[in-house]
Amino acid sequence: MGEEYILQTYDICKSFAGNPALQNISLNIKRASVHALIGENGAGKSTFINILSGAYIATSGYFEFEGRHITQLTPREAQDIGIGVVHQELNLIPEMTVAENIFLGRELTGQGGKLDWKETNRRARALLKSFGVSFNEKVRINSLSIAEQQMVEIIKVASMENSKLIIMDEPTSMLTEKETDQLFKLINRLKKEGKTIIYISHRLDELRHICDTVSIFRDGHLIYTGGIGEHTKEEIVQMMVARKLTEQYPYVKGEAKGIALKVENLSQGNFLKNISFHAEKGEILGLYGLVGAGRTELARCIVGADRKSSGAIEIEGRRFSLKNPTEAIRSGVVYITESRKEFGLMLDMHVGFNISISVLRQFINKLRHINRKEENAQILRMIQELSIKTESSEKVVRKLSGGNQQKVLLARYILTRPKVLIVDEPTRGIDVGAKVSIYQILNKLKEEGVSIIMISSDLPEVMGVSDRVLVMYNGSITGEFTHEEFNEKAVGLCAFGEKKG
Amino acid sequence: MENSFNAEAEKGRNVKVQSVLKKFINNDLSRTLIIFLVLCIALGIARPATFLTTSNLINVLSQISVNGIMVIGMTFILLTGGIDISVGSVAAFTSMITAMLLVSKNPFGSNIVVALIVGIGVGVLIGALSGFFVSKIELQPFIVTLAMMTIFRGMTMVISQGNPVSQLGDAFSYIGVKYLGPIPINVVIMIAFYALEHTCFGRYVYAIGGNKEAARLSGINTTKIIFGIYMICAATASIAGMILASRVNSATPTAGNGTEMDAIAAAVIGGVSLTGGKGKILGALIGAFIIGVLNNGLVLLGIDVYWTQVVKGVIILLAVVADMLSKRKAAK
Predict the structure, then answer these.
(1) Mutate to test the interface with A, among B217, B225, B327 (most CBs of A within 10 A)
(2) How far apart are CA A165 and CA A83, in angstroms?
(3) Closest CA–CA distance from residue A327 to any residue of chain B (Å)
(4) Distance of alpha carbon A438 from alpha carbon A415, whole angstroms
(5) ipTM confidence
(6) What is the pTM for the complete model shown?
(7) CA A439, A441, A445: angle at the middle one, nearest 5?
């Protein structure tokens, strides 16, 4: 034992605030192999590698690395025993040179603690040469392309004296084909040197070129582990998305009541390419896709939170050029952000403050005085209608649960009486019960004739709640499905770039 | 039976009193007030003959009026998470302009009302300039107002050639000491209270300080609001400048040097958070009173005037630490 496998995990579980994110993950990783982890967003891949790298501590379970029994460790300890992570966000310092970055945190020093630049540069040069990259060790990181920066990051992790297991979190998400090839060569080299690689990716096609084994995660469970060649792409997608509809989706068939929003040829830089679609009054339009497909960018462009390069927007047949969210809200289009804590709520303010902030003008009199009585009446009405659990409207929002925070945000925008309500991942990070009540709120608005666009990465949710679904991939719409056409496999394939046939 | 019932009720009452007391102590505003009162009582005991005299208290009040006005505009900016360190220079520049108009031969310009309006108007324009760079160009407030501070201290020197402008006329000095001092501070306080507590504008200021992007996505025109508060702050700085000049009946090029730090210190002592979204005008004002009484008290106690700075610094540190501790406690 311990020879064949470098890492074995035993029943690793992890919960966040009582919500299970990982359940009983027992996985063996072969020495000197490339092992892929795939799954939808939120399937638990990132949580899993965060436990291996010491960023999270498992709720229960343990793992054995090189025969060492481990129940918890710090990121520093993970590094010391030989687990290195190449993160999705690059952790390089842009103003420093390649050599400085590679040896950051383990600087080479000479006598008296003086930094030995000569030796640092010499070693960095040797490393770059051995990896066959084209840039030299003295250039600054900010003058390199993203792909080259990715290389530096990988070389940095791979060159740690004792790194034995290298975890790469979506390393190709920003790379071109040619750059990807270069990366694969590098990975093969590392493998030959006896290093083991855990590789996370959304690009199923490329896994065949590089991986030996694949593990599929779904809803925090490990569904499958096996050779990459044993299944077709379709079968793998099926395993990633298929699941029983155990959760309740209170679907009510919507009645389309005419076009509310029409978007024509909307583009934004390289992110969005000629997007055209419409949303009906009285329907929930699901907008499905993987993270990075451009869904949030699309929504932000529509409400003028970001500038679009071209394209036209019509609301109920009238053309609008919405320059900022203020104008969008006035015209009846609102966007509820996916990051409710960063961009949605004023966390240290009261529930009431957060609910009424968008409609304060409704309550002012001639002296520009806010009528507190009227304001409070509306606030209390929303708290009751959305059954927000809070002792009073004066409670600080930070102290509410995720589901109730989401409801506060919904309340704020519902008060503006929107014609089009764009909700971005409205149920992310909230428990099942709260999810159902969010769906019910959306259904009620739908019945009132509001046009709802729901962005989500959760396929069962999208199919369970929407009347119609648009799928995005890489800044374009790759498919449209009516409720009757819903099919997990077909929708899933569109999200991976296949055009709907 | 009855006894135990009474005991129970007694206990309940105690708990209630305790919780009210706890709430009072945990409230930033009341904490600042307690510090202020303790300070006054201590001075009253230590120097009953000098501290608690009408003339001394009026003296303290008039000394506070400059900082008291400045801190109001500053609080608006701090509430949005910004900062304005140019207020001292703005005060000097605008009061210099008013002073030069007053002593000028131009019959229209030397009119006291015109001179005041022009001076304060120039201040508002400077505020608009800072507001433009902070809100439209999205530069850091500290850097923008550092530039403004330097530019307008320099401009004050340029227009005055480094000389003070004195003999501003009885009218200016008289209304300065007798009316302008107490009246504007009252007026400005009232307007500020009204604006912050009762209008959309005030809510938006807090919303921006609480979470700027969230405020923008909520439909608040954040650019416009931020623009506005820099103008307000410069206006209060200009009014403070006028009071400063009228008290000595002279505008000096170095007037208001360091007052920006006094204003920031007062706000911080009064529980205004430098990260924005938290604090009250009243707290900031009490902060200004604490600094004023402290200055006065150290003089009365016969302590070397140089110690004032040291004590002020220590109090700022204590205020921030207390704020941090209460935040940590609230987080639990």
Answers:
(1) B217
(2) 5
(3) 7
(4) 16
(5) 0.82
(6) 0.75
(7) 115
